[in-house]
Amino acid sequence: MSSTTVTSTTATLCENCNLRPKYFDGVTTHPYCNKTCANKAKPSPSRQATTSANNCDHCKVRPRYRDPTGFTHPYCGKSCAASHAKSSHKKSTGSTSTKATCQAPGCQKAPYTNPDGSLSDYCSQAHRTIGETICLMCHQAPKRPKSHFCSQACIDDAESTSPVLLEVPKGHVTFKSVEEQFKTSWRHTGKRCPHVRRVYKIISPQANLASYNAYRAAVEARGQFVATGRAPGNENRRWHGTRRECNIGDKGRTTLCTSSNCPMCCIIRTSFDLTKFGSKTGWGRFGKGIYTSSTSSKSDDYASNDCSSKLTAILLNKVVVGRGCKMLNDNTTLTAPPPGFDSVLAEKGGSLNHDELVVYRNDAIRPSFLVMYEH
């Protein structure tokens, strides 16, 4: 038999068993003799790679689920998505028994599994809403609109323990608001914006707040800011960086220290004090006042630790701006705003690279949030 005949005969045999002839359907000659051999045939390496790339990331067998919108999910179904998420959680925690639960108070249900296989913090949209608006005192009910608390009872409880720090849960609308202001006001191009790790609501003593509220009302009466769509007294939130001697704000550290040399705890306890002016810098561009900024990265320049900590602390304060006098150049002799004004708005462009807001009386400012971030 010639070599040509052998080649021709081999070419007509099933590519799997090499015994029976390839199946011919009258139009096309198929590579296998029947379905059994076709199913047994192993795909080529290139086909294996393609098939593997399109298979479920968990079971590696079934194809990935393609939803009606055309989006291809990484898993074949909810079962594999949930199984993969659980195994990933065990690996990340180093535990084989930890079971993730909904973060809503009192709920022990498993959290919702997202389409990409990751776990949500909550089991349902209803519980997400609760978690994002939970009362900062009791952690049991949604807070009231424009309040941090769910009831007068919780307000009274918080005030009775003041001054106190109440940690704001991550994901809470208040946490998001403070974090967003921190990020959007980080304006130094040469400084990478750090991550906000913790936010605490500062609850000040009622007597302390009463004098602030009275001053704000007086400024509002003069300026009628509400009528122009602004907050009463033209109140704004501004940043202030200072020195932290203790570990206040670190994980589990919410008790104020008693040191008179810890500016951070002193401000949280009794608010700002003009008699301390110049204790850090020795002077002020716009005289003897209390300095804040809308630029978080500027206030970061003044934030420092005299303790061992990975975190840096900064204060977000509510300030009665009233009618602000805009200034570009230094005026170190000021002890009060110019006549007819309630504050000084030191603007970028003159002697400053970033803005400053200066008030000249203690009642014009109160600390509102302690923000902890990591460079």
UniProtKB/TrEMBL annotation:
Q: Kindly list the GO molecular function terms attached to this UniProt entry.
A: NAD+ poly-ADP-ribosyltransferase activity
What's the protein name?
Answer: Poly(ADP-ribose) polymerase catalytic domain
Q: Where is the PARP catalytic domain?
A: 232-347
**InterPro entries found in the cross-reference section:** Poly(ADP-ribose)pol_cat_dom
Instruction: Give the stretches traversing the membrane.
Output: none
